[in-house]
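Collaborator request, handled under Task 6.
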Amino acid sequence: MLVGVIADDFTGASDIANTLAKGVPPEGGLRTAQYPGIPMNKAAADVDAGVISLKSRSAPIEEAVAESLKALAWLNDQGCRQIIFKYCSTFDSTKDGNIGPVASALASALNVRNVVVCPAFPAAGRSVYQGHLFVHDRLLNESGMQNHPVTPMTDPDIRRVLANQIEGSVGHLAYPVVAEGTRAITRAFGEQPGETDFIVVDALENSDLLAIGAALADAPLITGGSGIAMGLPHNFIASGLAHGCEGEACTVSGPGAILAGSCSGATLGQIEHHKRNHPTFPIEVEAVMSGGVTSATLVEFITSQCGAAPLVYSSGSPEAVRDIQEKYGREAISDALDTLFADTAQALLEAGYRRLVVAGGETSGAVSQALARSLGHPEMMIGAEIDPGVPVLTLGEVDPVALALKSGNFGSEDFFGKALRIMAGGK
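Structure tokens returned to the collaborator:
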């Protein structure tokens, strides 16, 4: 294995796995596998890039750091030459963590400084300019992320956010240098003060990320969103350590369903679009907490609508989410919904369902871990891209299962139906 990724949630893991597998046309990318948690066994010999999915984004800091260091140890055992700590392109993190503490722990374990921090992902409208994170034409704290129920982002200055989370120092590589290309970036990295721990790097376009990636060919540790990995496959292909390849097309037969637990604006819009022509079932959190809605309720609805792309969802407006959290507590609700979706996915697997689309990081983590346990923890191989940042994942070689793990803000309006079609070999 050449590249090892530690991702702080499951949809983010799929996002960067897709980036590494796709690479840059026509050269292609790396043969990439995603793992639901830290594997017990060694990776397959033909895997170039391994992506470990953790649920560490909103975990207690100590737990997030410990799990990330365990993931690092496994990746080192696979022979990885480069480690990436992947977090969301909207830098989702509480005021006290977890991005800073995890990044610091990884840097200390690898004994490196001047570690790049770059959450830019232009394909999804994320850019970094003058150290500030933008979502399309809005600063991060004006993009809707300030209302996130778990990690509200109220400060767009990544330098300041990171500095508040760590004991070390944070530098900045400004856009005029990045725009000059790889040589200028490499020179600027070499001129950084020795006491600098992290460097926030500006990036506006894919070309910037490719130039930054070329400058990071020998970096032991990189941190960022999935965009930071865009130029990395070329480094290994050019050196002869890997051969370019593309994610394979997927054709999985069997019924499909959609499970949505994200409250993002994009997901809410996708739900409304899907409602127009497909059966949907809104999950009332009150009913879940009281036991009135169970996995059996959802499975009964889904199987009664077999072949019609049924959707069940717990998504709601920020105001509704806040109200229900005040009554039951955020963690209690999160645990109840994770269990509900995980149990539903397992029951659907037993009922012969082989195509599942899942929206939301926490929901995706619960579902993919449950399915991995049921199937004996197979590697999830990266297949065709559905929309930017969201590939098809396939589990198992005999009677395979296809998954799409969608981050809340990702995907086109018609994503749900499109994902099920692509899984079945359509377009």
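The cover message to the collaborator said: "Residues 3-238 form a domain with the Rossmann fold fold (CATH 3.40.50.10840). The chain has two domains: 3-238, 256-423. Please let us know whether this matches your experimental observations."
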